[in-house]
Design a protein that fits this description.
The chain has 329 residues and is an alpha+beta fold. It has eleven helices and twelve strands.
Length: 329
């Protein structure tokens, strides 16, 4: 099991504070608090000892229970209902992208539960209970915690990274410039300077096997802007070569394409036959090819010619697979 970082412990302290605050004067059993924090009772007892010794916030303990001394406590930050709702929706999107139990996302929901009115409060509680049933990936949680701490403190990290085509992991030192969640693939990516490649590279968090925060520090270049860096990318992988892509959209998809912003450069122009032509200025990557193929026969590549041929070839190979299976039945 990875060694607990200072960041992990700090996150748990915040969670304890908000969990106890929600209980009011009644408090809760120490055993139940430990279960909610996903640690042992002994660890929770140590946390409570630390809170008492440093007077982080006023607590009481007795008969196997603990709680906050409400009259001596300044409550956590409050949000307006609309602010809390937007945070709630953002958290739900994060949960949908992760599809796993993440203590940080759970902590966000727990804090929201302190300020939300009914019926949102009940929905948040149901979400928290449902999250506890999701599969846990302690390795990814540990890696994200270390990445967050290194990024905030400006320290280089040493990672063991296995790229998709590689059979074995390789060692890298990277300076973290940005951490970007991506709905496609339900993943998070690190954008940063790779000391081995001597250039800015993108690393998928789930492919990081080991991580260590180094004493060496760095400063993000003042001219680095992640929005500009990713402006030509369809997904997370940028490319220096930007091309004009034209797609023919069949009538049944036109409204969907018009009401959704797939890329900042897109324009959608309706045609007389009810179809539309979408024009994009993007770097052509596998992410774009996959997106086009996902629409089947309803989206046709008009240009560039090489992209049209690549999509047609992939579609033909796919059709051949199903044709072979159909004939063997």
């Amino acid at each position: 099991m990875p060694k607990e970082s200072r960041y992990d412990r700090q996150v748990r302290m915040f969670k304890i504070e908000h969990l106890l605050y929600q209980c009011g004067d009644a408090g809760m059993e120490v055993e139940h608090l430990a279960k909610l924090c996903d640690v042992s009772v002994r660890t929770t007892q140590r946390d409570l000892n630390s809170i008492e010794a440093s007077n982080v916030f006023p607590i009481w303990r007795g008969h196997g229970r603990c709680g906050i001394l409400i009259k001596q406590y300044l409550p956590p930050i409050h949000f307006s209902t609309s602010e809390a709702l937007n945070l709630f929706m953002a958290s739900r999107l994060m949960l949908g992208y992760a599809q796993r139990y993440d203590p940080d996302i759970a902590s966000i929901f727990t804090k929201l539960n302190c300020v939300l009115p009914s019926p949102l409060k009940e929905q948040v509680q149901k979400t928290i209970e449902w999250m506890n049933t999701l599969p846990k990936n302690s390795q990814v949680v540990h890696v994200l915690g270390c990445l967050a701490e290194a990024w905030i403190t400006g320290h280089t990290v040493h990672i063991s990274y296995q790229s998709y085509p590689a059979e074995e992991a390789s060692e890298r030192d990277i300076d973290i410039y940005y951490i970007q969640p991506v709905s496609f693939g339900h993943s998070a990516y690190v954008i940063g300077y790779c000391h081995y490649m001597k250039s800015i590279r993108t690393f998928k968090v789930e492919r990081i096997k080991t991580i260590a925060i180094l004493p060496a520090s760095y400063t993000i270049p003042s001219d680095f802007d992640v929005n500009k860096h990713l402006s030509s990318a369809w997904g997370i992988v940028p490319d220096e070569k930007v091309e004009s892509v034209r797609l023919r959209i069949l009538p049944e998809l036109v409204r969907l394409m018009e009401e959704t912003v797939w890329h900042p450069s897109q324009t959608v122009k309706r045609q007389k036959d009810g179809s539309a032509v979408m024009t994009l200025q993007v770097a052509n990557t596998w992410e774009l090819v996959t997106w086009i193929l996902g629409w089947g026969e309803k989206v046709e590549v008009l240009e560039p010619e090489w992209l049209r041929e690549e999509v047609a070839e992939t579609a033909q190979k796919t059709a051949e697979i199903y044709e072979v299976k159909r004939q063997t039945r």
